[in-house]
Amino acid sequence: MLPVIVNVSIAASDPFPALLFNDRVMALAHWRSEGLRGTSSIVELLDDWAVNVERLQQLCRSTATQALLAEQGVELSAFRVHAPVSPRQVYCTIGNYRSQVLQAALDADGGVNEPVRREAFLASIEKRRKEGAPYVCLKGPASVSGPFDGLHVERGDATLDWEVEIGVVIGRTACNVEAACALDYVAGYCVVNDITLRDRIIRQDLPTLGTDWLQSKSRGGWLPSGPWLVPAWSVEDPSALRPWLRLNGELMQDGAASDMIFGIAEQIAYLSRHAALRAGDLICTGTPAGIGSHYGRYLHAGDVVEAGVAGLGAQRVVCVDSTNGRRRCHESGDGE
Fold first, then answer.
1. Where is the Fumarylacetoacetase-like C-terminal domain (predicted)?
2. What is the pLDDT of residues 235-261, one digit of tens each?
């Protein structure tokens, strides 16, 4: 595994981007004199990604860099690890794994004539694959939190659910790009958990107006991200990535990106036709089967949620009781 990019702070410092290799960390500012730009923050680094990408790739692949990190790097445990991205926009692709769409359909169907219904549902999924397009919603960027921050559960959050996903971080402006070259616009990949309050997806007071993604997805802390950003050059085949999630040690989700109805490149191409993607934007690419609504089990205070993607690391979030309510404005955008 080559070095990855981690967003860390120490003592009272502001978060800063660094290279991480074998649990050793060194600030990217160390290489500023060698042409790296925007090394003081992850936002600035990604803003200059098109300029930095070649030099960063050389650094990460250099055995000299790896030796320097091994000899002079500081142990990761000395730092606080923050979300590896501070996006201006967060996009979430809904209903994008065959396994999850099929599971939800069968759950709603109540198991009547399951074999017949299964074939019908699978056929409808493949028809959508051929004739349809991704379904994407916006999620507030202030929902982004760190990979080890607490997840505050408020009174009334009876249907707070998990969704482990592969996060795609854009590295340069993408507008009307073709799927064949869409992955060229990716800076890297990370783990995300798209926390969703199920009973707020449809407004009870306005049921005919459809989905309410603000109430159901955008509260502060509802997108634990990281632990780090794995640059695109270290991910040979994104479709081979495997997201998983454990609740209190029990495996709940275990998927494969190859099960996506619309692959990552197709999602980027679709989005770029409707909105100009900018460096640092984050795309949450869908979740596999095994969300809480399937089990009839939602998140409560005291629960431990571990979410990961093989090759991208794993996060660990503890659900915290917010008995007296919680201030929902995050000045830092990085959890509380």
1. 90-316
2. 999 999 999 999 999 999 999 999 999
